[in-house]
Amino acid sequence: EDQVTQSPEALRLQEGESSSLNCSYTVSGLRGLFWYRQDPGKGPEFLFTLYSAGEEKEKERLKATLTKKESFLHITAPKPEDSATYLCAVPAGGTSYGKLTFGQGTILTVHP
Amino acid sequence: NAGVTQTPKFQVLKTGQSMTLQCAQDMNHNSMYWYRQDPGMGLRLIYYSASEGTTDKGEVPNGYNVSRLNKREFSLRLESAAPSQTSVYFCASSSPSGTYNEQFFGPGTRLTVL
What we know:
The complex is a heterodimer. By secondary structure, chain A is an all-beta fold. Chain A is built from no helices and eleven strands. In chain A, strands 2, 4, 5, 9, 10 and 11 form a six-stranded mixed beta sheet that branches. A five-stranded antiparallel beta sheet of chain A has the order 1-3-8-7-6, with no helix packed on it. Chain B has strands spanning 4-7, 10-13, 19-25, 31-38, 42-49, 56-57, 64-68, 74-78, 87-94, 104-105, 109-113. The chains are: A mainly beta, B mainly beta.
């Protein structure tokens, strides 16, 4: 059974304090890993797709990396506007059009 | 482009009432999805439609039905609402290319069943 586990459940940072969020997964035949950001009261917003181990992608203060067992979302010098829930997801094994299995999310709070 | 739109934004029902949640996308995507999001449970797939004319069950389909009306629209129906269906419902769409496809989400419908 596909599993996606995110840690920590919640993370509080001071503005400028860099850190990382973890997403570990168990899936047969990884065909990509997705990161989303979700603000309160809104739908998830797509951030990144990572296709293979060793791949990295960046967007502003965020950088996502992928290994064979986990992905990290690194946040460099975060600002209060980076506060949100960050979700990762993988396509379910055995399908070709992307039913996604989501992690529980990490709630990030950045204090000024 | 509006992306993925959902109506209504909020709804309160009494147990046993029925309703339909509407979803539309203007990105010419082939696949559409309905999820529910509950505290501590994350996002769970209810039903999906890989392409126009096809629908299939996801992880938690009991108590729901869907209709893929055309390529743009995918509706979710609760025939007899129950308090356990109180949740936030999200519609998403994607356009598969190979095996990798990002899903794009709507703003959600917040449903309370009393």
